[in-house]
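Recall that a protein's primary structure is simply its ordered list of amino acids. Everything else, from secondary elements to tertiary packing, is in principle encoded there. The following example makes that idea concrete.
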Amino acid sequence: MAERYAVFLDIDGTLISDSFRIPQENLDAIAAARAAGHLVFINTGRSFGNIPDELRKQFDVDGVIAGSGAMIIMNGATVFKKKYDFETVRRVAEYFFKNRDCWCVFEGLKTNYIIANAGYQVREGRQIELRTIEDLSLFLPDEEIQVMAAGPVVPDDFMKLFEDEMSFFIMRTYVDCVIKGCNKAKGIEKVIEFSGIKRENTVAIGDSSNDLAMLEYAGISVAMGNSQEHILEMADYITDTAANSGVGKAIRKILNV
């Protein structure tokens, strides 16, 4: 067969727009790419437990990179996994219990755990609220926290305190706090190591700061039409917006499927 490619898709602002419904044009293009022998992976900053079931049920892909590279699943098997140590989680929780101007989300393998400051609305059934530091011992000993998020604006002193344990990606309304050494490019690197796909035959599609590493690493980088300005400036191609099925259009154009 012709050269095989691997496509890596961000979720929020890329595969989906303002709901958890994936446009049919995206789903059809993903199916066509896989039918032609190419591989398709989700590559998200969300932890695995923060990918809603209703979203997972919609896509049929070859694997998932979650938590900005903290977890990699290929063909249903977990091939790589990292988590925050409990002491780091405890220190972060202590910070946000004292600094009530910011909310904090601990994104785990199973679900999300919230310190609901600053008017944060807990989504019942999807999130567990942490009300005291003692709640960590109740809910988190058997959980694996893969990524943290805080907002709406995170103080500089927080980033200074935890700069040795995490990397920070400043988004429009929050900050992603990723395990040091993990990013979406590292996830791609491990996937091609296992799959044998050439680096030059990788396609990354994204829209925001935490996609920058994978877009720089991939053989072909695609920015969504709704991307942050610095993403638009560095990408090889610019596709349509998430709302207008930009993922599906990019896949069909690049892979000719």
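The chain has a mean pLDDT of 95. Residues 86-98 form the longest helix (13 residues).
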